[in-house]
Amino acid sequence: MATEHADDELAKLERLSEVYAPSGDFERESSARDTGPYYAAAEEVLPELEPEDPRVSGAKASAEGKAFPVDRRDFMRLFSMGAVVGATACVRRPPETVLPYVTQPIDMVPGVATYYASTCGLCSAGCGIMVKTREGRPVKLEGIADHPINQGGLCGLGQASIQGLYHPERLKSPLLKQEWTYTPVSWERVYKVMAERLKNKKRVAIFTGGATGHRHGFFRDVLRAMGSSEELLYTWEPNGLHQAMAKAHHVAFGEARIPRIEFQEVQYVLGIASDIHEQGISPVYHAKGMSQGLSYQNGKMGTFVQLESNMTLSGAAAHERLVIAPGSEALAALLLVEILYDHPLAKGSNEERRLIKEVLHEHRKEIAGGWDALGISQKQLSAVADALVAKPSLVLAGGSSAFTAEATKLQLLTVCANILVGAYGKTLILHQGWHTNPVVSGDVQRFIADAASLDAVIIIDSDPLFTLPAALHIKELFQKIPLVVSLQAFPVSSDEVAHLLLPAHHYLESWGDEQAVAGLWSMRQPVVRPTTESRQSEDVLLWVLAHLGKNLPYADYLAYLKERWQDLNRVMAPLVGFDTFFQAVQRKGFITQFSSQVVGELRPLATHLRGELFAPKKDALYVVSPLDHRLHDGRGAHLPVLQECPDGLTTATWDSWAAMNPHTMTRLALKRNQVVQIKTPAGEISLVLYPMPGVHPQLLVVPRGNGSQDKRNTIARGVGVNPLALYAGEFEPESGQPITAATEISLTGTSTMYRLATLQKHNDINSRGEIIKNYSLAEMQTREHMTKDLDTVPDLFPTLAGAEHRWGMSIDLNKCNGCGACIVACSLENNVPQVGREQIILGREMQWIRLDRYFAADVDHPRVTFQPLLCQHCNHAPCEPVCPVFATTHDPEGINAMTYNRCVGTRYCANACPYKVRRFNWWTHAWGKMGERPQDRNPRALNPDVTVRTRGVMEKCNFCVGRLREAKHTAKIAGRKLHDGEVQVACQQTCPSEAIVFGNLNDKFSRVTKQRSNGRAYLLLGGDPEHGHYGLKTLPNVNYLAQVSHQARDEANHHQPAASGHGEQSEHA
Amino acid sequence: MKGSISGINEQILIGTGTKPEKTYYIALAIAVFCLLIGAVAWAIEIIYGMGVTGLNSPVYWGVLITNFVFWVGIGHAGTLISAILFLFRAKWRNSINRSAEAMTVFAVITAGLFPLIHVGRVWLAAYWMMPFPNTNNLWVNFRSPLIWDVFAISTYLTVSLLFWYMGLVPDIAAMRDRVTGFKRLLFGFMSFGWRGTLREWHHYEVGYGFLAALATPLVLSVHSIVSWDFAMSMQPGWHTTIFPPYFVAGAILSGCAMVYSLVLPLRHMFRLEEIIKAEHLEALIKLTLLTSTIVAYAYGVEFFVAWYSGNEFEWAIFQKRATGPYCFYFWVMVFCNCLFPLAFWSKRVRYNQTICFIICLLVNVGMWFERYNIIVSSLVEDFLPSNWGHYEPRLIEIALTVGSFGWFFTWLLIFCRFFPLVSMSEVKLIMPKPLRGDGASAAQKH
C-alpha cells in the first residue's frame, strides 16, 4: 500500500519534471544540452513547494511549460536530484503564513529531521559531514561517524560554516562595476558581459583555492576550452604545510605525497613546531589519531614531545615541550639527524645513510656551533633521540608557526630523521592512503610573474588580497588586469579589485568531490535550495563558455562530475551500475579503495639543503604569524560563532593579539593589554600585547585570520589586525609559499591600553590542585585495576539508582587539546547567542560549555591543561534548592533541568553554583537582523528543536535533552531500550580528540560507567572520596579523568603563579 | 505653655499644622528629584534588560542586593527601639520611637523594592514568588531562602505597620480635636473614633504590649533570614553560621545610626529640641556603640573561623577581602563600623551632636560597604580560578541607589509634614505628674 503510494508520487515527480523545464532567459538561448535542470530552482521540479504568496516565494518566473526530451541521463539526474534532494530539501517555509501541504511530499515529515551526507568545504582536510536538515533547511553539521578522516568529529570551523550559508551579507545578486559603483545585474547580463569581454582573449586565468577532487581538473578543462592555457590555473592555500611536505617527499622519493601516520603503531612522536592539532594537514584526523594512539589507555601511554618556539595547542597537548629559538626548527632537525645518525640503534640502509651523511657533511659548521643558537641542550635532544630509535616513533615537523625560508629544508631533514628512526613503512605511510596536496606549489609566484600579461582573471573561492602579504602588491597586479571576476560564496577583501562580483553557491548548495587522501573519494552534494541568487561557480563557467560558443559537453558541473565518477565506478565497484553506485555514494558520503603504490628510493638531498641554516641573533625580536586555529586564514572571520569561540591558549575572542613571553615583557617594561607598535622594513602594525607563558623570549606571536577592512563584512570588519603587513613577501624557494615566520622586528610600546576580550580573566590555579588531578604513569599502573565508586556516599537523600536512565558524562583531561569544537557544536545545537566583544569583557558570555585553561610550572616552560567545563548535573545541585520558583529542578534521569518559562531571573542559582556554569540572559539577543551588531544571528540558522530564551532568564547545559528525547522516542517506537552510544550529546559528538564520553550511568556496561569507576575518575570539587572527604558533596553526574603524566608531579606545589603576566593579579589590575 | 502636658501637643504639632522651616522644602525637593532619577533608571532596566547594570558572571548580585540588605538593616532599629526598648521600659525611647518606627516602615518598603528591581523578569516575579493555589499545581519552592525572605519581609512590614499605626491612634485623635471640617472627619476616621477613655487606654496599653512582644522576635528573625540568603549557599565568604547574629547586630547598628542621622535634622526642622532631648540622643549613641562592638567582634570571628576551618576557599576569600582588589571597601567598612564609633566611649563626644552626626553617617556608609563587601568580594573569586571576574557598578545601579534614598526620604518627609513626629501620648506618659500652678520648672527636668 505504502509503496504503491510512493510509486505514484514518483511517477508524479517524473511528470512534473517534464513539464517544468528550466526557466530563465539565458538558459533558453543556450544550446540544447545546456537546458538541463538547474538546481537553483526547486519549484521547477516541484511547483507546489513554491509558496502562493509572492512576497515569500523565491520570485522565480514560472516556466512557460516548454517540454523537452528526457533522455536516460536527464531522467537519472532528475531522479537523483529531485527525489533524493529536492523532494525533501528544497522547501522554504513561509515565515509568516503557515499553510499545510495540499499533497504531502513523500519522504518528508514536518518536525522530523532528514540527514544528507556531504563533504566539508572549509579546508582541504576533506572531512565527511552529515547535514541535519529540517523542513529543507540545514540546521547542523556533524561528522560522518564512519568517515575515515574525521570519524564523526568535526572542527569548529567546519561546524560554523552553517552560519556562512545563512549569512545575510552574502551577495544577493551579481554586481557589475560601472565607473565607480556596483550595480546589481541579472545573471543573463553577467554571461553576456563576460562573453563579450572574454571573446578572442587568449590569456584568461583562474585564481582559486585548494581542492583535492575533480575541481581543478574541471577548471583546466574550462581554460582549455576557452582557448586559454591550463597553465593559467593558479591555486593558492595559505596553509603551506602541504606544499612543504609534498615538495620534500617529491625531492626525497620522487613522489609529491604527504605521508599518513599509522597511529596504531606509534608510541613516540616528536613534533618540531608541528601544528598537528591546529591546522596541520588534517586537524580532526590527527586529533583523533593522537587521542586513540598516544593518550593513556589501560596502563599504557605514548609520548608526544614538541620542540617549538611558539606556544601552540600541540605544544600544550605535548607530554614534554622544549622551547627552541625562533626560526631554528631546521637547525633542530639537523642536530637531531646528527645525533640519530651516530646512534647505535639507528635504522636506514647503507645507501640512505650515505645520502644522509652527505647532508650532515654539508652542514658540519652548524653542527659544530649550532647548539648555542638552538636554545636546548644536547643532552635533552639526545634523550629524545634515544626514545625515538627505541620505540615505534616518528618525527613530525612544520606548521604555520614555522613557515620560515627553511620550511622545505626542515621537511627534508625530517625525512632524514624519519629514515633513521625507521618510520617509513611502519609509522609513516607513503605507499598507500597518503594525504594529497590541494594546490600546485609555486602557483602564486607564477601568478605574480604572469599577471601583467593576463587578459582576464576569475577569482574563485580565494582571497589573495587578504591572505597574501601586502608587500607583494597583489592588489596592484590585479588592478592592471583588464577584467577581474570574483566568484565567491561570501564577499571577500579581494572583491575590491573585481569588475564583476558574482555570488557563488555555498558549499552546502554545491556539487563537488574531494580526495583528501589518495583512494578516499568524498562526495559533496547540495542539501538546500540556494538561499540567494547564487550559482555554482563551475556552472557559471559552463554558461560563459556556452555564451562564447565554446561549449564543453556538459549541461552542468554535476554532469561533469558524473562522467568523472563513472571512471571511479569502473575502478571501485565494477559490478554495480553507475546510478546505483552514485546514489550509494551520495547516501554514504564517500567511497574508498586504497591501492598500494611503490615508493621510490631515497634520492640525493644535499643539493636541496645547500646554504647555511638560519640561526637567530641573540638580542633580536622575531615575529611569527601562525594560522588561527579557529578562523584559519580568515575564512572563518565572518562567522560570529567562531569569533566568539575562544582561542585555546589566550581564551581571547573577537580580536587579534601579540603574544609574548611574560619575562620579555617585564624586561621591556611592557604591560598586559598595552598596545605596541611592531615594525619591520615591510610595514608596521599596532596590536595589544598578551603575556603568553612558554613562548620563546625572543618571539612575538601574532595570529592570522582577523583584520579584515571589508565594509561589507560587518562581523569581521575592524576586528583585530592582519599581521601579513609585516612580511616582506619573500617566498620559501622550494614550496613557493610566502614566509610568515622568524622575521626580525622592532617593537615600541605605546601609551594606549586596550582590553582584550578574554573569557578567562584569571589564569593561575592558585595551588588548588584538586581542580586538575594528575597521576604519574607509574602511579596509574597501580591504580588502573582499582574500581572507584563515586556515587556511594553517606547521604540522606534518595538516589536515582532505580531509574532506567541516569545520564552522565566523563571527560578525559588527557585527551582534550583545547580546540574549541565543543563550544561551537554546543552553541549551534542549542541556539546559544553570540554576544560580542564588549559583553565578553563585561563577563557575559553565553556559551554553555567553556574551556578552562590553566598554566602550571614556570613561565618559560609551562604545562597547560584544558578543562572543558559544562553544567556538572550535580545530584545534590546547589542551584536547585535556592530557586524560589522551581525553575531549575532535577529530572528523573539525573539531569539538572531548566524551565525557562518559570524562571524570573533572581540569579540565585548562578551564585550558588560552585562551577559558575549558568548563563543569564542579560539582554534579549536579536536573532533577526544579523549584520547590525556583531552578535546578531540569522534566525534561519537556528535549530528548531531548541527554544530560544528571552531576556531575564537563566540558561545552561541541559545534556542536549532534545537529542536524548529524540533517541528515546526512536527506541520506544522500535520497542527496545536505548543502546549505549546510540545517543550522543553535541559536544561529545564533535570532539575531535574523543575526550568526552556520554551515556547511562545506570547501565553497568556503558562506557561512561566504566570510565566513572576507573581509578582516574574524580568529581570536580568532590574532595578525595577514597579518604572519606567529599569536598562540596555536589555529586556531579559529570566526572573527569585525571591527567596522566610520564613523570611524577606534585601538582599542588608546582602550580605556581605561572600565569600570564604577574600571576596573582587578575586581568583587571 | 511650655513644658506643660497640653504644651506638648503645641510643641509637637507645630510642624504638622503650620509651615515647617525652609530646609524642609529643600529636603523634600531633593528627595523627589532623587526618586525620579530612580524611577527613570528602573524603567530603563525593565525596557532593556539587566544588561544595563554592571552585573555579570560571576557577580550575579551587586549593588541592588546590597541596597536590599542595607535597607532591611535600617528597618531594624525602629522595631528594636519601639518594641524591645518598650518592653524594657527604656524611657528615653519615647521621644524618638515614632520617627524610628516611621523609618522602619519606609525602609522596609524601600528594601522590598530591590528584589523586584533586581530580578530579570519583574512582571512575573511579583506574583510567582507568592504561594497561591493554581490549576497547574505550581507552588513556590519552600526550600529557597528567597521565599523565606518574602515571608520574613512581608511579616515584618505588616507587624511594623500595625505597631506604628497603633501608636499613632491617640495622636491622630489629638490632632482631630484641633481641626474642623473635612480634616476632622478624616482624622476621626483614622483614629477609629478614639475618645481617650480609661477603658480605651487600658485596651490600647494591653494591645500595644502584645504587639511589642510579637514584634520582638521579628527583630531577630528578619535579618537572620536575610542573612540566610547568603549563608545557605555554598559560596565561600557566605557559607558561615555566624551570619544571623552578625547580620542582626549590623542591622541594629545601622538602624541606630540612621535614626540618629535622621532625628537630628528633623529635630531642627520641626523645632523639637525641647522634646527630643540631648540625653535621649546620647542613649541612642550608646546603643550604637554597643552594636558596633558586637559587629567588630563578628568581623574578627569571621576571619578567625575562615582561617581555623582550614577551608582553603574560605580563607582565600578573606585574605583577598583585606588585601585584594576590593580591599578599599573592606577597610572603609572596618574604619566606619568599628574604629570611628570607638570615639563614643567619650562622654564629651556623645554629647557633641555634630561629631556624633558625622560618625553616624559614616557608620551608615560603612554598613552599606559591609554588605557590598560581603556580596561582591565573595562572588568575584570562588572555587575555580577560571570563574573569577570583576564587578563595578554602572550608572543605572548608582541611579537606583540614589532613587531608593529619594523614595525613602520622600515618604518620610511627607509623613513628618502631616503626622506628629514624636509620640505625644508617650511623651506625656513619662512626664512628671503635673503640679498645680506652674509645673513648668519640674517638667523641664525631664
Kindly describe this structure.
The complex is a heterodimer of chains A (1069) and B (446). Chain A has 1069 residues and is of the alpha/beta class. Among the domains of chain A are: 110 residues, no CATH class; 214 residues, Rossmann fold (3-Layer(aba) Sandwich), CATH 3.40.50.740; 137 residues, Barwin-like endoglucanases; 271 residues, Alpha-Beta Plaits, CATH 3.30.70. Chain A is built from 31 helices and 37 strands. In chain A, helix 1 packs across helix 3, helix 5 crosses helix 18 and helix 7 crosses helix 14. Chain A is globular, with a radius of gyration of 29 Å. Chain B is mainly α and 446 residues long. Chain B contains 17 helices and no strands. Chain B has a single domain, classed as Up-down Bundle (Formate dehydrogenase/DMSO reductase fold), CATH 1.20.1630.10. In chain B, 52% of the residues are buried. Chain B is 72% helix and 0% strand. Chains A and B meet through strand 28, helix 27 and strand 32 of A and helix 5 and helix 6 of B.
Salient structural properties:
heterodimer, A: 1069 residues, alpha/beta, Rossmann fold, Barwin-like endoglucanases, seven-stranded mixed sheet, six-stranded mixed beta barrel, B: mainly alpha, Formate dehydrogenase/DMSO reductase fold, 72% helix
CATH class term of chain B: Mainly Alpha
What is the strand tally of chain A?
A: 37
> Based on CA inertia axes, which overall geometry of chain A fits?
globular
From N to C, what is the helix and strand string of chain B?
HHHHHHHHHHHHHHHHH
- Low-pLDDT sequence parts of chain A: 13-68, 1050-1069
CATH architecture of one domain in chain A: 2-Layer Sandwich
Largest sheet of chain A: 7 strands, mixed
Which bin fits the share of residues in helices of chain A? 25-40%
Radius of gyration of chain B: 23 Å
Category by helix and strand content of chain B: mainly alpha
State mean pLDDT of chain B (0 to 100 scale): 86
Number of DSSP strands of chain B? Answer: 0
Given the structure, what is the number of helices of chain B? 17
On the 0-100 scale, what is the average pLDDT of chain A? 85
